[in-house]
Amino acid sequence: QVCTQVPYRCYSTPGVGQVQVDMNSETGVATVRLNRPPVNSLNLDVLTELGIALEKLDADRTCRAMVLASAVPGIFSAGLDILEMYQSTPERCVAFWRALQDAWLGLYGSRLVTMAAIEGHSPAGGCLLAMSCDYRVMADGKFQIGLNETRLGIVAPFWFEDVMLNTIGHRETEKALQLGAMYSAQQALSIGLVDKVVPLAEVMPTVQGELKNWLQIPDAARVITKTSMRKQVLDRLRSQKEKDAQFFADFIGRDSVQRSLGAYIASLQKRKS
Ligand SMILES: CCCC/C=C/CC(=O)SCCNC(=O)CCNC(=O)[C@H](O)C(C)(C)COP(=O)(O)OP(=O)(O)OC[C@H]1O[C@@H](n2cnc3c(N)ncnc32)[C@H](O)[C@@H]1OP(=O)(O)O
């Protein structure tokens, strides 16, 4: 049972929040679990909750590390909620995009050691969240990870691209983004998209073991290094947040993009029948 006794502290009501945060004040490690069945798609509410959770953890001086995981078996996150982008209003699109920008700035710019425990599928926005952590452990088997935007007839924003470039380099990013490639865990490991692949049951223990290494490093030196490595990419979005949000709303509102999204939603539903 999570969050019922000392040393755990919760920032959300267990089993209720769509973003559950368990803070272990003895180890200084927080576990943040996405909890929006069936697939943890990221809508305005979840992104807002995630942004707030990250902000609180960053401000908590007892917290040194954060594990990003899922409370939904078989899924890390299905990425952005497509229904936020399909037949929405420009105002809602802008609000949705701002929530995504803020959650991402909080995660990529976090002073904490951040690790993704990828225990399920992780397409698109799910892949972005995982890539934005300092370290990724993925479950071996049938799960896939990647930025598949082009397959939906949409384009990964420049900051998704920047994060991928920083993770796997130019050539692999160029192929991955144009093809909207989805990788198995082993393929992801071979291009450096994840750092370790282990059986599903070993994902969390492996993350905990790796954290021990990272937490041996003095925080101040590690944070200065992380900030220096990520500043350029963070500043690029910070300097054009409103322009980026407006671009998203305009792009998503195009008839051709709406038609592609409609067809993609239909294909997801057809897969089941
Ligand atoms: C400038 C524009 C830039 C915009 C950037 C966008 C980035 C993004 O994140 S776009 C989102 C891309 N995501 C995907 O393509 C994922 C699509 N989903 C899947 O491939 C599969 O659902 C899965 C592999 C993640 C899981 O498969 P599983 O068999 O377990 O579940 P399903 O039966 O397919 O799905 C259950 C249910 O959930 C709906 N759904 C799935 N993904 C999404 C989503 N991203 N948003 C909203 N809804 C989603 C799916 O349609 C099913 O709904 P119904 O039960 O009502 O049929």
From TrEMBL:
InterPro entries listed in its UniProt record: ClpP/crotonase-like_dom_sf, Enoyl-CoA_hyd/isom_CS, Enoyl-CoA_hydra/iso
Key word Signal present: yes
Pathway where it operates: Lipid metabolism; fatty acid beta-oxidation
Catalysed reactions, semicolon-separated: (2E)-tetradecenoyl-CoA = (3Z)-tetradecenoyl-CoA; (3Z)-octenoyl-CoA = (2E)-octenoyl-CoA; (3Z)-dodecenoyl-CoA = (2E)-dodecenoyl-CoA; (3Z)-hexenoyl-CoA = (2E)-hexenoyl-CoA
GO biological process, alphabetically ordered: fatty acid beta-oxidation
Keyword annotations from UniProtKB, A to Z: Acetylation, Fatty acid metabolism, Isomerase, Lipid metabolism, Mitochondrion, Signal, Transit peptide
Key word Acetylation present: yes
Similarity section: Belongs to the enoyl-CoA hydratase/isomerase family.
Function text: Key enzyme of fatty acid beta-oxidation. Able to isomerize both 3-cis (3Z) and 3-trans (3E) double bonds into the 2-trans (2E) form in a range of enoyl-CoA species, with a preference for (3Z)-enoyl-CoAs over (3E)-enoyl-CoAs. The catalytic efficiency of this enzyme is not affected by the fatty acyl chain length.
This protein's name: Enoyl-CoA delta isomerase 1, mitochondrial
Organism: Branchiostoma floridae
Gene transcribed to yield this protein: LOC118429514
